[in-house]
Design a protein that fits this description.
The protein is of the alpha/beta class. It is built from twelve helices and 14 strands. The two termini are 33 Å apart.
Length: 332
């Protein structure tokens, strides 16, 4: 007889108990248009196969139909920036858990997953250092005129504002302080001032105050109905002379029309992002050195982050099936 292990899924106040047979052919699908590093893939296999699960890879796929076919009999799914839509969830009749290897999870339809009783998790903190290093590099890049001719400036002594003081924001703040910056932060969800004080960071009382004082503003808010399009003309035009907005979060949080208006009126303002705006070519042509977008999202593009997030995803799947652990569940 196979071992039967209960696991639970919390949906509002209702607790649904499932029973899953941990069979040798339980299938963990790793679906990545942009594949993990080989070391990460090998580690995922080692972790899952040690638990008796079968690992199947779908890498560099070019059509959604390939994902729909591959996920049909999957019990668990590991993804990176791949989109898990309602259609994907509907096609995955055996699916019990999706783990997004990374912090953001707006590429997963949480409502559709919850409706089917599918647990969705992320792997917070695994990519944080990579993103934080990129944010500081972007500040230096823009302060030095994108490494082109002309006199630039130093970031030492400047005020660094951090919008959302989570895993990445804290690391950006610590690295900024190590480089001699004055660091302030705003996060309405952190009520304990000691969190900021312990890092030597000054907490400000409002988002307006944050932008008005920041020479460099590092943006780390998620894309939610409340935040989409929330960073626009009013906030950007209030920033100090020569200020730079650094976005390693999501493009959706930027009001592109407001951004363009602010850059039009304030010829000293700069914007750099690793998530290309919809009007990326127009903005690049219009604002020259004051605007830059990386060719693709670069935040987690380090070997270390790639491996850390992949292995964390595999461990969370095993822990979920064996112990019912839902610590990093995001669709509660």
């Amino acid at each position: 007889m196979p071992t039967i292990v209960p696991y639970t899924y919390e949906k509002k106040e209702e607790k649904i108990v499932y029973f899953t047979s941990l069979l040798k052919d339980m299938k963990v699908l790793v679906a990545t248009e942009k594949p993990f590093a080989a070391e990460a893939v090998n580690g995922i296999k080692e972790i899952c196969e040690a638990a008796g699960y079968q690992v199947v890879l779908l890498e560099k796929y070019t059509d959604k139909a390939q994902l729909l076919e591959a996920v049909a009999d999957a019990d668990a799914l590991i993804i990176r920036s791949d989109k898990v839509t309602a259609e994907v969830i509907e096609a995955a009749r055996n699916l019990k858990i999706v783990v997004r290897a990374g912090a953001g999870y707006d590429n997963v339809d949480l409502a559709a997953a919850s409706a089917r009783g599918v647990v969705v998790m992320n792997t917070p903190g695994q990519n944080s250092n990579a993103v934080a290093e990129l944010a500081l590099a972007m500040m230096i890049y823009m302060s030095r005129n994108r490494f082109t001719a002309g006199t630039g400036s130093e970031i030492q002594g400047k005020t660094l504002g951090i919008h959302a003081y989570g895993n990445v924001g804290k690391l950006v703040g610590r690295k900024g302080k190590a480089m001699g910056m004055n660091v302030i932060a705003y996060d309405p969800f952190i009520t304990d001032d000691f969190v900021f004080e312990n890092d030597g960071v000054r907490k400000v009382g409002s988002v307006e105050e944050l932008y008005a004082q920041s020479d460099f503003l590092s943006l780390h808010i998620p894309a939610t109905p409340a935040t989409k399009g929330s960073i626009g003309y009013e906030l950007l035009s209030s920033m100090p002379k020569g200020a730079t907005l650094v976005n390693t979060a999501r493009k959706e949080v930027i009001d592109e029309q407001g951004l363009e208006k602010a850059l039009d009126e304030r010829t000293d303002l700069k914007y750099i992002t690793d998530i290309a705006p919809d009007a990326v070519e127009h903005l690049a042509e219009k604002f020259g050195k004051r605007f830059f977008a990386t060719p693709k999202k670069m935040g987690a593009e380090t070997a270390e982050a790639n491996i850390n997030a992949g292995l964390a995803a595999a461990r969370q799947i095993v822990d979920f099936f064996v112990n019912g652990t839902t610590k990093f569940q995001v669709n509660k």
